[in-house]
Amino acid sequence: MIDRTHRLKTEPYTLEDLKEIMAYLRAPDGCPWDRVQTHATLRRHAIEEAYEVLDAIESGRPERIRDELGDLLMQVVFHARIAEEEGTFDFGGVVDGICRKLVTRHTHVFGQDEAETPESVVDNWEKNKKAEKGLADQASVMEEVARTLPALMRSEKVQQKARHVGFDWTDIADVEAKVREEVEEIAEARRLGSDEAVAAEVGDLLFAVVNYARFLGVQPEMALNAATDRFIRRFRHVETAAAGSGRELRQMTLAEMDVLWENAKAEGL
Fold it and tell me: What's the pTM?
């Protein structure tokens, strides 16, 4: 049990302690901020904490991963506490639900299905998920992919759903050709002067690039984040080099800045 008169316990805290702390924070004499939160107001915090877990994983530092997982777990406990107060479900229901899902989706472990490869495990999972949710067709499965996901992640997941029923490229050369085709279609839309068509074709290009990344075994969301980080590092080099010569970027030509940019690339930035 948590002693509300002391700031910290001397022994390690448990999951039950976390649930009790959250109950205290939500109590009438608890925290003013925590008391007014709802499922809706906490939405962005869940997203932020999930991304911070990813960032911690990228850092390779176990202590950061541990801390960020704790923040993400707190969001789960927070939502469960709100639901318990509303009488809709509680933390036990969350645990029960995920345990049942793990059993019913892993029919190659807990049932009669077979799966010798990670790919066949995913196929079984998708088959069982489709049956559990009563989804009549694969388009309905695609519609189940959350629209709130980042666009690159959502398009990748939709493509994976299509792959499960064989609707996919078989040769990466065809995927490369599709990317080039979409670039040409953007140029054609521009010639026609249709902003709506240009936007549609840009979307098709991005979708094709995600497909290409998937064939290459690259996670597009991670790859784009890494590219953005590289851009910032190289831009900082360009800006610093310009300042070192007593100039501001706005005083330089694009060709001059490009020389500094290539220098940054040569230095491995």
Answer: 0.73
